[in-house]
Automatic annotation (TrEMBL), chain A:
Domain of life, per lineage: Bacteria
Membrane-spanning intervals of the chain: 64-81, 93-115, 127-148, 155-178, 207-228, 248-276, 288-309, 315-336
SUPFAM superfamilies (UniProt xref): ABC transporter involved in vitamin B12 uptake, BtuC
Descriptive protein name: Iron ABC transporter permease
Species in which this protein is naturally found: Flavivirga jejuensis
Similarity section: Belongs to the binding-protein-dependent transport system permease family. FecCD subfamily.
Compartments reported by the entry: Cell membrane
Membrane topology term: Multi-pass membrane protein
Keyword annotations: Cell membrane, Membrane, Transmembrane, Transmembrane helix, Transport
Pfam families membership: FecCD
Organism taxonomic ancestry: Bacteria, Pseudomonadati, Bacteroidota, Flavobacteriia, Flavobacteriales
From TrEMBL, chain B:
PANTHER family from the UniProt entry: IRON(3+)-HYDROXAMATE IMPORT ATP-BINDING PROTEIN FHUC
Residues covered by the ABC transporter domain: 10-250
Protein name: ABC transporter ATP-binding protein
InterPro entries according to UniProt: AAA+_ATPase, ABC_transporter-like_ATP-bd, P-loop_NTPase, Siderophore_ABC-ATPase
Lineage top rank: taxon: Bacteria
Main location: membrane
Membrane topology of this protein: Peripheral membrane protein
Alphabetized UniProt keyword annotations: ATP-binding, Cell membrane, Ion transport, Iron, Iron transport, Membrane, Nucleotide-binding, Transport
One Pfam short name: ABC_tran
Species whose genome carries this gene: Flavivirga jejuensis
Length: 343, 264
């Protein structure tokens, strides 16, 4: 008795594509490394050229793994938000998570000149940016959570999140008005997003928090499916809507907050991946959609990163620009073809 | 008809419903005493704004009562946890579905959620119950269709099937016949009558189709400005309850036909 499609073949193709993109991503770059050597390098065998092994181990492998974490993590947090708010325009940014991170980073980079000596002593290192971004998204999340306990309506939370976004955006504008050109440039570079700068140690920390987020999202699968009916129906099916909502918001913040902290605000992925996946799988059932978004997000991010590396050249384009350039036309094309945005 | 009077599924005693704000209590209706038995089809009728929805929301624990008692299967409503309430009470609401990108089967299967494991996997008996309910509601041929492909009448049947699948003693429907044409109004109510008989579940629905409700229901709950009366339709006609349902300037109730007509 098979009433619900399991999409085994589509999943098999996707996993194959993921592996292909993973190896492709590692072999492409300013130096082109043949597939055979990539494979040898990965399993620890000797490669034709010792520097290739170094490139693979210290640079390309962590970058490819980061791409997988970023793509799948942001995709899943987008999916959670779209279902929770039953709004196709929702993404990780709606709760103000990304803008919270931006504010934290802006305060660290540009705050020094505005507030003078108080913050000037802090070294603007990568760790201080990561901590500032995490703190920023955490504080915004905390405020959204406190307010969401007072507000019954889920749509109101959406608006509150967007308002936090506006507040932080304008604060950043005010800060940038007073800051020096160098600081502004540093902030803008952070805003471009980057997945290539993570050391193994940083990657490990990112992975641990990300893994917790993914596990929490798995726990929510059943609730997410009932939420498709609406909150009152979910309640009538025995779901504790308030607790589940809290869990979903926390999961999203963990995923999107940490990823933004380490990789910068990666635009578009969180919003677009769930839609692209839904077009591919034509279902809203989260038991299928969640793993599909996971794999698909990772694939798209690997492809975007490969493009950003501009194979065989020394240039690297900002990943943020690529995710939008690649993805936005795809979404427009899908919408025009299907004429409808399902969620 | 031999009805087991001893098994009362839903009972209210001196129930007062309404709203509480910070300062004042707004009482919508009070002294509500209802007893609904197993296998009964019960219609809740009354004019717009009289408090039908408030009563249903209170009975389904969406809204708090102001006073009195509500019990389901002899257990006070407030003693039920969310999940246990979901096993004795299922709902069909007027609110639109959050997403219609589910197949009919997937949507109906969601009714098994209170019984399934943490990811919601369906067991063999779940499949059996779902298939049986699809047959009972005559939507077996629709099960692979997406919900956005359905007409309003079909969707209503699907929502009823979903409630049925939840396997509860009591099903409450909030105005299940709105937006439907005359044929489908009768069809849905007739279906509810059949389901109440076949499954021995108690089905309570609010409706504005008074003439249909009079013909099909075992019991009617009539809400007027001052009182809430529960009785069999024929008794209510004899007592002249329907004459007080609406302001008398426009329409009057005709005892012989059991329906309203416009005053000439």
């Amino acid at each position: 008795m098979q009433h619900t499609k399991t999409y085994k073949r589509t999943f098999a193709v996707l996993i194959l594509m993921l592996l292909l993109c993973f190896f492709g991503n590692i072999s492409l770059g300013s130096v082109s490394i043949p597939f055979q050597d990539v494979f040898n390098g990965l399993i620890g065998n000797a490669t034709e050229n010792e520097s290739w092994r170094h490139i693979i181990h210290e640079y390309r492998l962590p970058k490819a793994l980061t791409a997988i974490i970023v793509g799948s993590g942001l995709g899943i947090s987008g999916l959670l938000m779209q279902t929770l708010f039953r709004n196709p325009l929702a993404g990780p940014f709606v709760l103000g998570i990304t803008s919270g991170s931006s504010l934290g980073v802006a305060l660290v980079i540009m705050g020094a000149s505005v507030f003078g000596s108080t913050l000037a002593g802090i070294l603007v290192s990568k760790w201080s940016i990561v901590i500032a971004a995490s703190l920023g998204s955490f504080i915004v999340l905390l405020m959204v959570l406190i307010l969401s306990n007072k507000v019954r309506d889920t749509m109101a939370i959406l608006i509150i999140g967007l308002m936090f976004g506006s507040i932080t955006a304008s604060t950043v504008s005010v800060l940038s008005y007073f800051s020096s050109a160098e600081e502004l440039q540093q902030y803008i570079f952070w805003g471009f997003g980057s997945i290539g700068n993570l050391t193994w140690h940083e990657l490990f920390i990112l992975f641990v928090i990300y893994a917790i987020g993914i596990l929490l999202s798995l726990v929510s699968i059943k609730t997410l499916n009932t939420l498709l009916l609406g909150e009152n129906y979910a309640k009538s099916l025995g779901v504790n809507v308030k607790t589940s909502r809290l869990l979903i918001i926390i999961t999203t913040s963990l995923l999107a907050g940490t990823i933004t902290a380490f990789a910068g605000p990666i635009m578009f992925i969180g919003l677009a991946i769930p839609h692209m996946t839904r077009q591919l799988f034509n279902t809203s059932n989260h038991k299928i959609l969640l793993p599909a978004v996971f794999i698909f997000g990772a694939i798209i991010m690997l492809i975007c990163d490969s493009i950003a590396q501009l194979p065989s050249s020394d240039l690297t384009l900002p990943i943020n620009a690529i995710t939008s350039l690649v993805g936005a036309p795809v979404i427009i094309w899908l919408l025009v073809r299907k004429r409808k945005m399902m969620f | 008809m031999t009805k087991n009077k001893s098994h009362i599924v839903l009972k209210t005693q001196d129930l007062t419903i309404g709203y509480t704000s910070k300062k004042a209590k707004t009482v919508i209706a009070s002294n509500i005493n209802i007893e609904l038995h197993k296998g009964e089809l019960v219609g809740l009728i009354g004019a717009n704004g009289i408090g039908k929805s408030t009563l249903l929301r209170t009975l389904t624990n969406v809204q708090h009562k102001l006073n009195g008692n509500i019990s389901i299967n002899n257990l006070p409503l407030e003693n039920y946890s969310n999940i246990n309430l979901a096993k004795v009470l299922s709902l069909v609401l007027t609110e639109p579905l959050g997403s219609k990108n589910l197949t009919v089967f997937e949507l109906v299967a969601l009714g098994r959620q209170p019984y399934t494991n943490w990811v919601g996997n369906l067991a063999v008996e779940d499949f059996e119950i779902i298939n049986q309910c699809l047959l009972q509601t005559n939507i077996d041929d629709l099960k692979h269709k997406k919900c956005y492909e359905l007409s309003d009448g079909q969707l209503q049947k699907v929502m009823i099937a979903r409630a049925l699948v939840q396997d509860t003693d009591l099903i409450i429907l909030d105005e299940p016949t709105t937006h439907l044409d005359m044929y489908h109004k009768a069809y849905i109510l007739k279906l509810l009558q059949k389901l109440a008989k076949e499954t021995n579940k108690t089905i309570l629905f609010s409706s504005h189709e008074i003439d249909l409700a009079i013909q099909l229901c075992d019991t009617l709950i009539v809400m007027t400005k001052d009182t809430v009366i529960t009785d069999q339709p024929c008794n209510l006609i004899e007592k002249g309850t329907f004459n007080n349902l609406f302001p008398k300037d426009l329409i009057i109730f005709d005892d012989k036909t059991g329906s309203f007509r416009v005053k000439k």
